[in-house]
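sorry for the late reply, my laptop died twice this morning and i had to redo everyting from scratch. anyway the thing you sent over, i finally got around to it. pasting the sequence first so we're on the same page, its 182 residues, then the predicted structure underneath. double check i copied it right bc i was rushing
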Amino acid sequence: MRLGGRVSYRHYLPLFCGALALTALAAARVPAPPQQKDYLTDAESDKIRDTPSPAARIDLYISFAEDRLKKFEYEIHRPVQEPRRIEILNTLLNGYVGCVDDAADQIDDAQEKHVDIREALKSMKSKDQNFLDTLEKYDKPGPDFDDYKDSLEDAIDGTKDALSDAGDAEKETPAAPVRRKQ
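ok and here's the structure:
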C-alpha cells in the first residue's frame, strides 16, 4: 500500500515472521549426520565402529597412529619432495595426535564399563614410548622445521599425556585374580 508516496510494509511483517519461524523449525528437525573424525579414513572409521571392546579400539587407534608416524618419517626423509610437503607433514602429525588422544579416551570408556584393558595398556605404553622417542628425534632444527614445529610439539605433548593416562589407568586397574589349581 502506498501512503503519501511511501510503501508500507507493515502487512508483510507477520508473513515474514511466519516464514522465519517455519525455517527455524525445519532446521531444528534435521538431525546432524554422525561426525566422522577428519583424520580417519572411511575404512578406519568403519573398523573403529565395528569393534565392540575398548581394548580392541585402543589397539586400532595405536596402529593408526603408528601408520601416520611411519608416513611422517617417510615424508621427512623422502628424496624427492612433494610440492605440498609442509601440509602433508602437518596433516600426518595432526592425524597421529588425534589417534593417540582417541586411544587415551578409550581408557576412560573402559573404566566406566569396568572392562579389562590391562594388555592393551601395556601395549599402548610400550608403543607410545617408542613413538615419543621417534618424535623427539625430529624435535631439532632442520629443513622446514619451523613449518611443522607446532604440530610436532602438539604430537609430543599428546603422546606424553597419553602415556600419563595409561600409567594412571594401570595403577588404578586391579590385578587379575589368580586362579589356583585345585
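Residues 85-113 form the longest helix (29 residues).
thats about all i looked at so far, will dig more tmrw
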